UniProtKB/TrEMBL annotation, chain A:
Gene name per UniProt: Elp6
Localization (cell): Cytoplasm; Nucleus
Cellular component, GO, one term: elongator holoenzyme complex
GO biological process, one term: tRNA wobble uridine modification
Protein name: Elongator complex protein 6
Family: Belongs to the ELP6 family.
Major localisation: cytoplasm
Transmembrane segments: none
From TrEMBL, chain B:
Pfam families the record matches: PAXNEB
Identification of the protein by name: Elongator complex protein 4
Top-level taxon of the source organism: Eukaryota
GO BP of this protein: tRNA wobble uridine modification
Similarity-based family: Belongs to the ELP4 family.
Organism name: Asarcornis scutulata
Free-text function comment from the UniProt entry: Component of the elongator complex which is required for multiple tRNA modifications, including mcm5U (5-methoxycarbonylmethyl uridine), mcm5s2U (5-methoxycarbonylmethyl-2-thiouridine), and ncm5U (5-carbamoylmethyl uridine). The elongator complex catalyzes the formation of carboxymethyluridine in the wobble base at position 34 in tRNAs.
Subcellular location: Cytoplasm; Nucleus
Pathway: tRNA modification; 5-methoxycarbonylmethyl-2-thiouridine-tRNA biosynthesis
Keyword presence, tRNA processing: yes
A cellular component term, taken from the record's GO annotations: transcription elongation factor complex
Amino acid sequence: QGKFTLLRDTRTDGSFLVHHFLSFYLRAGCKVCFVALLQSFSHYNIVAQKLGVSLTAARERGQLVFLEGLKSCLDLLFGEKEPSGEPSPLQFLSTSNLKALFDFVRTSLTPAEGDSWQGPVLLVDDLSVLLSLGASPVAVLDFIHYCRVVVCSQLQGNIVVLVHSGEDGADEENELLGTALGHHSDLILWAEGLATGFCKDIHGEIKIIKRLSLQSTEQDVVQVYQYKIQERNVTFFARGLSAAVL
Amino acid sequence: EEDKYAVYSNLLFKYFLAEGVVCGHDLFVASAMEPPDNILKKLPAPLLDDTHRNELREEATPAKSEDSQDSMKIAWRYENLPKMEASPTTSTKFGHYYDISKTMSPELLQSVKRHSFYLPEELSLMPKLKTWNMNCGYASLLHSIQKVICQEGFDGSHPQKKQKNILRIGIQSMGSLLWGDDICSSDTPEDIHSLTKFLYVLRGLLRKSLSACIITVPSHLIQNKAIMERVTNLSDMVVGLESFIGSERETNPLYKDYQGLLHVHQIPRLNSLICDVSDTKDLAFRLKRKQFTIERLHLPPDLSDTVSRSSKQDLAESAKLLSSGCGAMAIGKKHLDF
């Protein structure tokens, strides 16, 4: 509880980690606020069903609060003015201020009367999109900081965010974001494409870095595995011991 | 990603639109340099044999007749239209062949609905809209696309329309100076977010409607590599064309039969944990008089002075015409004859 997990992917698609955490926390009975910026609701729903969870059902019973970025931005740009006067969570698209997004997260996860969920969880896919939409890295870091204060410290919940890097790591703002968040994370899961190039049987390598303590100078525990993604599952194995090789 | 002189990327752009005409999809063409009508006049002619052409003519007429009884005929038409739901259906018959030495007949072109957006005209008509600090060319293009999607019912807003159709959108040379964007012309552009914001909204529009889109970008002119990384992240499929014109590879005997290389940077991973990745990543393209071909490139054994190569002629694999897609129309994995 109260943990901050950073997901990173470089040269590969690490979204399988997002799908995993989503279904994991829903199955555990947590209240999840999912800020889904990159894909549509039906995409996540279909994959979640393969993993055994129905997002529509979770949303209906109030367990899942889903912010579908792609849909909300259309409403914001092409829709009529909101009569209720509530600012859209994607307000930053016009004002470069992420406060409305933070308010959205806070109201979604603050427990209401009669809520019996296990613990709040904030999931973001993916943070790099905020940079593409005009937010500065500092603004994004501030947003995450505020979320941590509310979700991790006050509500004893967890946060999982994904930062995606491209082929060359040429996006400096993005790298800055990833590194800064990495320093404050309790757990980092870093999926990378193989340095030697594409391989059919091994989709990539994942590095798991567990922070034992943020204060002391104890060494982080680092583990490395290789993985292969399948239809409903991901198999992990030690380096060099892929089923194709043995 | 355009090749250096946009020769081959424009060709692929035209193939995408031509396929749309032959399949009966609606077209939306946007460009800042060449008037869309001119682009449409130069589409390659499809290779239809006589029996095929007769079927097409038959199809055009009984549009209003009973829909349930003529199921065979209508099913033929719909065979190539993907459904916007769970798993993408791979239709067995896919794609058509074209002869690039001939242009498409105006009658065939007239058979589909065409929408166009020509920037110099649009800017003079519409006052400057500053939306979200986005470049006004992009902003007005977004409004134009959204209007077409809404009015023609591609987003399901006219349920009484019996026949569903697909909108194929083609946008040329995004990011170039002609669109009013300086990411291609300046080392430190004033606004690096316009293109990515545009792509994000476009992605939203495509996800919410029965449409597919191809965009060409002169990425070789963009100095700031972060921008292309972000563009790639926001796209479903990214293909780069590298032509040998003017490079030292032109004289390399290894590439003597080809005009350039095709790099697949990203393929769509939608509705699934995995994606269908092909075995080979080395693709080269060749432009013959009548055809544009993409083939697997492999190094021959270095036996003698002369380099001989066997190029496999595999059958075209079904490209995935997903109802939402940014970037190039899916190119077959092995060998695709257009």
